Amino acid sequence: MDISQTENQEEQERNFSEWFREHWYILYKYRQLDDHVLLIIQERRLYFSTPDQFNDPFDCDLEAFVRGSDDEMFQLFNECLEQMQTRRRFAPFDERAEMENLFSYGTLMCEDIMEDVSGCRLSCVPGTLTGYSRRSVTGEQYPALVPHEEGHVEGVVYRNVPDAAWERLDRFEGEMYAPQLVQIELKDGSTLQAATYVVQPEFLGHLDQSDWDFADFLRNGKASFQRHYKGYQSL
């Protein structure tokens, strides 16, 4: 390619960039219709892959320039890592302050398990969440919550959950779940806002089509869950 061709291509690229900035209104990305896309539409949230799931070797080819000794850098790295492990994933900052109540739909409906996990004893009341369904996780005793327009899930609401308990709950639930604010209907017909842990899109393939049954968990799964669930090791 000669110099004139190169200059002509660069000019075309500049013209297109200028036109795009002046005229674009909506940017479309075409995807197949699957559970990931339904979550984007129903929950109005975008999914971003974690670095270990990127498929482009240059996605995380970043350089950082810092000043300090090796010990200072090691301490800074550990502090950043601890913050990443304890943060509430996908919860906007303005919503975190509203997370006072927890809607539990699975193993944490058992008050003894909730006390072990949260580190405190909390009162609870029955509640119903609509617009979701509770699915079994393949090979596990615990369930996952997924959006479902005609679904409803019976559970319990723990009130006034302290900050220290939220940090323990985040670690216990692990990377498969993210907290989300939902509207819960109580037995008297009133409603309240609560946080609940919803399965993240990249783990939808781990779910069965069958509904999870709390009574069956109490009979056949609770003891095994308390002995083997790896989330206890993070507390």
How are the SSEs ordered, and which strands pair?
Blueprint: H1 3-23, H2 35-43, H3 70-86, H4 93-96, E1 102-104, H5 111-118, E2 124-137, E3 143-158, H6 163-173, E4 177-186, E5 191-199, E6 207-211, H7 214-228
Antiparallel strand pairs: 1-3, 2-3, 2-4, 2-6, 4-5
Helices and strands: which structural class? alpha+beta
Number of helices: 7
* CATH level 1 name of the domain at 93-234: Alpha Beta
CATH topology group of the domain at 93-234: Hypothetical upf0131 protein ytfp
CATH architecture of the domain at 93-234: Roll
Compute the separation of the termini in Å. 62 Å
**Full CATH superfamily name of the domain at 93-234:** Gamma-glutamyl cyclotransferase-like
> Radius of gyration, rounded?
23 Å
The helix content, as a percent range, equals: 25-40%
Task: Summarize the biggest pleated sheet.
Answer: 6 strands, antiparallel
Average residue pLDDT = 81
Stretches where pLDDT is under 50 for at least 5 consecutive residues are 86-94
Number of strands: 6
The shape is extended
- The topology string of helices and strands comes to HHHHEHEEHEEEH
In percent terms, what proportion of residues is strand? 15-25%
How would you portray this structure in words?
The protein is an alpha+beta fold and 235 residues long. The chain has a domain at 93-234: Hypothetical upf0131 protein ytfp, CATH 3.10.490.10. The protein is built from 7 helices and 6 strands, in the order ααααβαββαβββα. The chain has helices at residues 3-23, 35-43, 70-86, 93-96, 111-118, 163-173, 214-228, and strands spanning 102-104, 124-137, 143-158, 177-186, 191-199, 207-211. Strands 1, 2, 3, 4, 5 and 6 form a 6-stranded antiparallel β-sheet that branches. Strand 2 and strand 3 (143-158) form a beta hairpin. The longest helix has 21 residues, at 3-23. It is extended, with a radius of gyration of 23 Å. It starts with a helix and ends in a 7-residue tail after the last helix. 20% of the residues are buried. Mean pLDDT is 81; it is low at 86-94.
